[in-house]
Amino acid sequence: MVAAVLAESVAGDAKIVVKKFSVHYGAYTALSGVNLAVARNEIFSIVGPANAGKTSFLRVLNRMDALTSGMRYEGTVRFDGHDIRKWRNLYALRRRIGVVFPLPVGLPLSVFDNVAMAPRLRGVRHRDELEEIVERCLRRAALWGEVKDRLTALGSLLSGGQQQRLTIARALSQDPELLLLDEFSIAIDPVTTMKIEDVLLELKKEMTIIMVTNLVQQARRISDRMAFFHKGRCVEVGETAAMFDGDVRDEQTLDYLRGRFG
Amino acid sequence: MRSTTQTQAPDARGVAWYLDKAMAYLVFGAGVSAILLIVGIFVFITKEGVGFVWDTVDLGQFFGSPAWRPTSDTPQYGALALIAGTASVTGLAMLIAVPFSLGAAIYIAEFAGGTQREALKILIELLAAIPSVVWGFIGLSVLNPLIIEWFDVPVGLGILNAGVILGLMAAPIMTTIAEDALRAVPDGYREAAEAMGATRWQVTWRVVLPGAKNGLTAAILLGVGRGFGETMAVLMASGHAVQLPDGVFDSVRALTATIAAELGETAVGSDHYQALFTLGILLFVVTFAINLTADLVVRGISNKD
Lengths: 262, 305
Ligand SMILES: Nc1ncnc2c1ncn2[C@@H]1O[C@H](COP(=O)(O)OP(=O)(O)OP(=O)(O)O)[C@@H](O)[C@H]1O
Ligand SMILES: [Mg+2]
Prior knowledge:
The structure holds two protein chains of two kinds. By secondary structure, chain A is α/β, with parallel strands linked by helices. Chain A is 38% helix and 26% strand. In chain A, the strands form two sheets. Chain A has a six-stranded mixed β-sheet, sandwiched between helices. The longest helix of chain A is centred in the middle third of the chain and has 14 residues, at 127-140. In chain B, helix 9 (213-229) packs antiparallel against helix 12. The longest helix of chain B is centred in the N-terminal third of the chain and has 41 residues, at 15-55. The model of chain B has no long low-confidence stretch (mean pLDDT 89). At the A-B interface, helix 3, strand 6, helix 4 and helix 7 of A face helix 7 and helix 8 of B.
């Protein structure tokens, strides 16, 4: 109920509104009972133990469920007020949403082509323009310094952490309105992670960010609001600062946030 | 409590250890004997042909003259017409087989769904199992009259006929290999591109094909090797006439077909016999080079920058 009320409270300027939402794989329900809203230009984080359904939630937001056999969702998801289930051109929807996967996927193309792919998909042809986009996105992903001399090397041959930043650059090259990050920092060292966190704080002026993270401190550092998922349910949603201060409905949430889970 | 397996000294050897060693030697022996066999074949062919190359024939004539008259009073051993025959038939076959097999492989790997994909794969494997003499028979009895009727030419046996037959023959194997190469591209690549809003075709064109390019090149090269080495179908469909071809309707004779047709009638050790072995060396070297290239390509030598 509280979640529903909260959803209403931001619904006025919400980028994403999710109601009575559940995700299923065949007969198996991976996630249910999700009611939440994500405001424009906020960083919204989702935390929770493994198997909570966090990734499943993100995958529905850009309609990857349509590509996975057996996967479906119930309830409604509104993107800018439009029901994404009724969105006919899913390609157009996905182009507005940048995704960073937990396992970094450097495509078997050059570093340059990896980042230039999304601009090319939307029709950018001029070399100068592509070069400008590639450099800007690689800088934002804190990767430019390391790869500027090897833009023609295969992206899939970069180190794990570099590939992860490459996927971040690639997601940014879409100029997304919504950025979905799924454990974006698991392969990245703490110093670089901090740099990217700073970039995210900059980026939220331009876009809405939803990130799944296993690091509760990361959620605390940069997210405005957060949700706690556990065992396939959305346990609660609230202001990050308030939740860390102990303003929670469910003791489990506080235990998880304080690292006393088990 | 002590377990029943006694603590083993560092150099103790159990049954498993001996079995492992024995298997290692067995596998090593099998591998070495396969290699020895191939080397043996090469040595044999070379031994039979090389004396001829050194002593009798002059290589300028061998590679430069189109006159292959091994049985005339003044025998001539020019292989140019035979090389041209093999090259033209294989070339035409690849023009046909490459687009067909790549198209089929892309459709099966990227677009066809579950049962349709399985059905197509079985069909393609069935096609690949058709014996070459049956293909030759189709060339003789189906394609030959069709070519005569459609193009109003006196003979339907020639480059066109043999090329089409060889192309159809090579396409299923090339499709199978190319499809394997496409399937070997991790799904994560497709998913990442799809998440960016790429359409199915854009995913195929921009991500899957570049990712599979080594395997696809290998598929094409193996097809070329197959075409080079094919004998029976080409013998039946090409018209088997020694000449430098002028157009696709001309009859030609292939290297392989020449060996197959003439070796039975030569006296062992004669010049003619040795000349045929020289053709064999040529074929061996070319197919070896093609297969080696395919192999190196698969290992991604071309990717090292
Ligand atoms: N493609 C799929 N087919 C079937 N079941 C799936 C599929 N993907 C996920 N699941 C199931 O859905 C459940 C939730 O998975 P999900 O990946 O959403 O969890 P998660 O919260 O992201 O976990 P983690 O923190 O480990 O990444 C799991 O039980 C998983 O087995
Ligand atoms: Mg996950």
